[in-house]
Amino acid sequence: MTDKPEVSIVIPVYNEELNLPELVKRCVAACDKLPQSYEILLVDDGSRDRSAELIEQAVKDHPGKIVGILLSTNFGQHAAVTAGLSRARGKYMITMDADLQNPPEEIHKLVEKLVEGYDVVGSIRENRQDTFFRKIASKTVNLMVRRLTRGQTMTDYGCMLRGYSRPVVNAILDCHEQGKFIPMLAMSFARKSVEVMVKHAERAAGESKYSVWKLIALQYDLLTGTSTFPLRMLTFLGFLIALLGVIFGVAILVMTRLNGEEWGRYGTFTMFAILFVFIGAQFAGMGLLGEYIGKIHLNARGRPQFYIEKELNAEKPNNESNK
Ligand code: UDP
Ligand code: MG
Question: H or E stretch including 113?
């Protein structure tokens, strides 16, 4: 246990007592087949069932293979994964869900890609087994994330079976913002990424931890946490409304000149035009204020602006023992 394992598998667990025994069994069996040494980190996200006890038992049953991390209360899936990553010692990291929707037997595919030198390995779910609403939600997330990320992107951000290299994980851990969306963060630091096809099963037991409301909240979080685009829209909308007000005002002026004062209902229309301009100005002002708040947000988030993966610096040739 003193040697660092090469592969770390991080699994967030929240009320998964029904899945844990099989998860542990299948994970250990699958990982034993890996040529690399490994550790499995089970992160209990403040479960209220017997998950924590089962994790403790699994740690005893598989010494040196399983590490249990018990969080004090429920912090959410991504926080739990981050906690696991912060404790993981491997060179290659794999994240996956505890509900056996991602078969542990697929782990080797991701590890192989990481060994080949990819920084981020995503996975695409072959014939996805989820409810209709879940699929729609995940389509929107994928679309949104793809819009929000620069450069490389992934097909399926929802599938948590993923592989990350040590430098990418270090970069993620250096981001101290709340409400991280790990796959997206990872992509923003990745140099080389790839995707593999993996099987997908129905949730083995228990219920999904994401209700409709939680999903909507997550998407809202994602949007506001990563981009100031909605604020820009507000400013834009404001200017648009104000412009419409001005156009309306001019139109009223022209029409009343042509058709007489009666056409403008003796100023009632003009009132509306003026109202439009004011409302528009308010929107634009709010958007502008928001832009400043957005800047504060970006600064407060303090994400590293770059991440050095390697430094190449050859020593002078007369020094033979450089390495
Ligand atoms: N999870 C967690 N904390 C939470 C919610 C979920 O650690 O607050 C874990 C859960 O135990 C599972 C994974 O995150 O391992 C994904 O959850 P789930 O399968 O319910 O999500 P879905 O597959 O429906 O997206
Ligand atoms: Mg699931």
Answer: helix 107-116
Q: Which residues line ligand 1 (CB under 6 A)?
A: 12-14, 16, 45, 74, 76-77, 80, 97-99, 101, 203, 208-210
Q: Which two tokens stand for residue 256?
A: 């009343």
Contact 209, 12 (CB under 8 A): no
Q: Which ligand is nearest to the CA of 203?
A: 2
Predicted confidence (pLDDT) at residue 233 exceeds the cutoff of 60: yes
Residue 128: pLDDT band (50, 70, 90) is confident
CB neighbour burial string for 55-80, b if at least 16 within 10 angstroms, e if fewer: bbbbbeebeebbbbbbbeebbbbbbb
Residue 323 pLDDT exceeds 50 = no
**By C-alpha distance, which of 108, 96, 73 is closest to 12?**
96
Q: How far is the CA of 15 from the centre of ligand 1 (A)?
A: 9
Q: Which atom of ligand 1 is nearest to the CA of 81?
A: 7
Q: How far is the CA of 160 from the centre of ligand 1 (A)?
A: 10
Q: By three-state DSSP, how is residue 34 classified?
A: coil
Regarding predicted confidence, which is higher, 235 or 227?
235
Region 284-297: what's the mean pLDDT? Answer: 86
- Give me ligand 1 centre to Cα 275, in Å: 49
pLDDT on residue 50: 93
Q: What is the pLDDT of residue 2?
A: 55
The end-to-end CA distance of the chain, in Å, is 27
Atom of ligand 1 at shortest range from CA of 206: 20
CA–CA separation, 128 and 273 (whole Å): 52
Rounded Cα distance between 314 and 254, Å, is 76
* Mutate-to-test residue for ligand 1 from 48, 99, 138, highest number of ligand atoms within 8 A of CB: 99
pLDDT digits (tens, 9 = 90+) for 129-159: 777 777 887 788 778 777 776 666 777 777 8
Phi, psi of 176 (to 5 degrees): -100, 10
Report in angstroms the alpha-carbon separations of 231 from 191, 281, 301: 30, 14, 17
Q: What is the pLDDT of residues 218-231, one digit of tens each?
A: 778 777 777 777 88
